[in-house]
Design goal:
GO terms for molecular function: adenyl-nucleotide exchange factor activity; protein homodimerization activity; protein-folding chaperone binding; unfolded protein binding. This protein is an alpha+beta fold. The protein contains 2 helices and 7 strands, in the order H-H-E-E-E-E-E-E-E. The chain is rod-shaped, with a radius of gyration of 51 Å.
Amino acid sequence: MDKTKNKDQVKNDQDDDYLLLDDNANESNQNLKTELSIEDMAAELKETRDDLEHYRKLYDDTFNKLKYSLADFDNYRKNIEKQNTLRILSVKADMLSTVVNLREDFMRALDTLKHHKVDISILEGLTNILKNIDLFLEKENVSEIKALNSVFDPNFHEIIGFSYVEGDVEENIITREIRKGYLLNDRVLRPSLVEVSKKIIKNIDNDNKEDTKGDEV
């Protein structure tokens, strides 16, 4: 009886030892799996960071290209708008120059008629037409350039002759306006054609005391 009991006890002890060995083996395997997972996670984290850095650089490059493209497009749009504005202004200036020339022809014809026996109602009608032309030019911001008795300014005036003067009279003063000039806004639509004052240079060393004129253009 005691021998049988001892055999059972020994067998139970052996079973407990096997179970303990199995538990230890499972625990070792679990620790190994845990260590491998951390390494894998570190590798994945590094890969994720590399991908994130790659896409961040890609985003920055794409954003900069988009920004420069928008700036180029904005400059292109402004350039086109400027060219269109200048083209429209050029066409408008040509049209208004034609109107100005017609106005001056009209004024010469009207002045001629005033020296002839013409019905007063006809002159009044033509004068009203001239006023309408002037109102149209005023509405389009066309104005005359001041010339007579002003200092010559090459930005607005064009010299076609000189008026020789003596004494204290200043030079480069516009003494005669041959043709009126006009401005469209602040730009010259047509320069004034003028004569300007120029002093006579006296040659006092000459025994004959001849007067000589300055150089002409």
